Task: inverse folding
C-alpha cells in the first residue's frame, strides 16, 4: 500500500499545480493521459479484458459522435477504436444520452460468451461496437456536461454482478479525472484576471454591460474592456462563446 | 402476490421500473439494504436566479419536508458533500453540522436530528444527461454502510435509466426542442445568427425565433444567460 500512498501524494501535488484555482475536488484528481491509461489498465486487468478505450461524446448536437481520448494501444490508436469512433458508436451515443446502464455484446464465434454477461442485472445487450470480440461499454458523466464512454474488449472478460457497480464507479472517477485534463487551456486560465472573470460570470447570469458596470462600480467602458480582454484570452470570437468556454473550462460556475 | 413482492424477488436479476409505485418500492428496498431509514430523490430545477428542489420520490414524513424547507434540501443536494459516482461519500452529521462548512445553522441541524436524519448522505445520480440527487439518511450516525451506499448509487442510476420519461419530466432540465438546442449550441460556439442559418440551412428569422424560444423557456434575459443555463444543466 505504500506505493499507493506515494502515488496519491504525487497526484495531489500534481493536482495543485494543475488547478491553481482549486477547482479540483480532492478525489477527482486531474491526471496525465499516461496516468489515466494506467488506471484504465488496472480496471481492465480486474475484469480480465484484453483491450480498453475511453471516449468523449462530442457536444455537437448536429451529429453526436465518440471522440477517442485514449485506448489500450496508447500512444497509438487501436483498430477497435476506429470502429467505435465510427458508425458503430452512433447508437451507443444515443443510448448514453438517456441512460447510464452498461451495454454489452457477445461475439457468436466465442463459445459461451453470452453467459458471461447474461447474469448482469440492469446491463443491456447491444449491437457489437467492435467485431470479433466480446465487450462492455460503461456510459460515464463528469461535471459541466462532459459525457463519455469507457469500453472494455476481450474474449475472456469475466464480470460478476457484484463487481459491476464497483467497476462502473471506477470508470466514473477515471472519466472525471480525464475530463479535467486541459493542457492547452491551463496557461490561459492563469492569465485571466479576477475582475475579468467577475464580469464574465455576471454576463453568464444575464447582466448587460451597463448592469455589470453598476454592480462592480466601474464605468461601462471598463466593463466592456474587461469582457473584450477575457474574450481574447479565451480565444473566443464573441461574448457568447467566451461565456460558454469559461463555463466548460470551469473558470466560472 | 402483490406487485411489490414481485419486484423484490425480481430485483436480484435486475428489473425494469414501470411506475411510480415501482420507484417507491425500489428505493425502500435499497434504503433497507444499506441501513438507511429514509430516502429522498430530488431534481434541481432552475427557477429564475435561484435553484429549487423538486421532490420526485421520498419517504420523509410530510412535516419534515415542510419544516426543513426545499431551499435547504436544494442546498444539501448541491452542496460540497454531494458526490458523483465513484467518489467515497461523506455524510452530513447533524450533530456536527454547524461546523460542516456553514451548510446549516445550528437550529436547522437540530431540526434534522430531531426529525430522524442524524446523518444524511447526498449522492449525485446521472441518468443519461439528466441529473438527479438521492439523499439517504438514518436516525443514528454511522448506521449507513458506505461501501453498500457506493454500489447503491450506481444501482439508482441504472434503475432510473429504465424510466427516462419519468426522469425527464421530473428533472425538466431539457425543455428545449432539438432545433432550439442545436441553435443554442452553435451560438455558444460563437456563431452569429446568419452563420447558424447557413449551418442549419434555414432562414435567419427562423434561427432567431428558435433562440428566442430557448431564452423564454429558460426565463433568461439574453442569449448569454440562456447559453450559461444550458451548459450548467448539461444540455449543450
Result:
Amino acid at each position: 500500500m505504500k506505493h499507493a500512498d506515494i502515488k496519491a501524494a504525487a497526484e495531489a501535488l500534481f493536482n495543485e499545480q494543475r488547478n491553481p484555482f482549486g477547482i479540483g475536488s480532492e478525489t477527482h484528481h486531474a491526471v496525465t493521459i499516461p496516468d489515466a491509461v494506467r488506471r484504465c489498465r488496472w480496471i481492465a486487468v480486474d475484469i480480465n479484458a484484453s483491450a480498453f478505450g475511453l471516449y468523449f461524446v462530442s457536444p455537437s448536437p448536429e451529429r453526436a459522435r465518440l471522440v477517442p481520448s485514449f485506448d489500450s494501444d496508447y500512444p497509438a490508436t487501436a483498430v477497435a477504436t476506429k470502429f467505435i469512433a465510427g458508425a458503430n458508436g452512433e447508437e451507443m451515443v444515443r443510448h448514453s444520452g438517456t441512460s447510464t446502464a452498461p451495454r454489452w455484446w457477445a461475439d457468436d464465434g466465442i463459445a459461451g460468451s453470452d453467459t458471461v454477461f447474461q447474469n448482469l442485472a440492469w446491463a443491456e445487450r447491444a449491437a457489437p461496437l467492435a467485431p470479433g470480440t466480446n465487450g462492455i461499454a460503461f456510459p460515464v458523466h463528469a461535471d459541466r456536461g462532459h459525457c463519455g464512454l469507457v469500453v472494455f474488449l476481450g474474449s475472456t472478460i469475466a464480470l460478476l454482478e457484484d463487481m459491476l457497480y464497483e467497476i462502473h464507479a471506477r470508470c466514473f472517477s477515471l472519466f472525471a479525472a480525464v475530463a479535467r485534463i486541459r493542457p492547452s487551456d491551463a496557461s490561459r486560465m492563469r492569465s485571466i484576471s479576477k475582475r475579468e472573470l467577475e464580469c464574465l460570470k455576471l454576463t453568464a447570469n444575464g447582466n448587460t454591460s451597463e448592469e455589470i458596470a453598476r454592480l462592480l462600480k466601474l464605468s461601462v467602458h471598463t466593463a466592456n474592456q474587461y469582457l473584450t480582454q477575457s474574450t481574447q484570452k479565451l480565444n473566443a470570437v464573441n461574448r457568447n462563446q467566451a461565456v460558454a468556454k469559461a463555463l466548460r473550462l470551469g473558470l466560472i460556475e | 402476490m402483490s406487485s411489490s413482492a414481485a419486484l423484490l424477488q425480481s430485483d436480484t436479476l435486475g428489473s425494469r421500473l414501470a411506475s411510480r409505485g415501482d420507484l417507491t418500492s425500489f428505493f425502500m428496498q435499497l434504503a433497507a439494504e444499506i441501513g438507511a431509514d429514509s430516502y429522498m430523490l430530488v431534481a434541481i430545477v432552475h427557477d429564475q436566479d435561484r435553484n429549487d428542489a423538486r421532490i420526485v420520490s421520498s419517504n420523509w414524513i410530510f412535516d419534515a419536508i415542510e419544516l426543513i424547507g426545499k431551499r435547504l434540501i436544494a442546498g444539501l443536494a448541491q452542496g460540497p458533500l454531494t458526490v458523483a459516482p465513484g467518489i467515497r461519500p461523506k455524510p452530513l452529521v447533524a450533530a456536527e453540522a454547524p461546523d460542516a462548512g456553514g451548510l446549516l445553522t445550528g437550529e436547522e441541524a437540530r431540526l434534522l436530528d430531531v426529525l430522524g436524519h442524524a446523518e444524511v448522505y447526498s449522492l449525485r445520480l446521472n441518468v443519461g444527461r439528466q441529473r438527479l440527487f438521492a439523499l439517504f439518511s438514518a436516525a443514528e450516525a454511522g448506521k449507513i454502510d458506505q461501501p453498500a451506499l457506493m454500489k447503491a448509487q450506481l444501482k439508482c442510476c441504472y434503475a432510473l435509466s429504465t424510466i427516462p420519461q419519468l426522469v425527464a419530466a421530473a428533472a425538466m432540465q431539457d425543455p428545449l426542442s432539438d432545433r432550439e438546442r442545436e441553435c443554442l449550441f452553435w451560438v455558444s460556439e460563437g456563431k452569429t445568427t446568419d452563420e447558424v442559418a447557413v449551418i442549419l440551412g434555414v432562414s435567419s428569422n427562423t434561427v432567431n425565433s428558435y433562440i428566442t424560444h430557448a431564452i423564454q423557456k429558460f426565463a433568461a434575459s439574453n442569449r448569454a444567460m440562456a447559453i450559461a443555463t444550458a451548459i450548467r444543466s448539461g444540455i449543450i
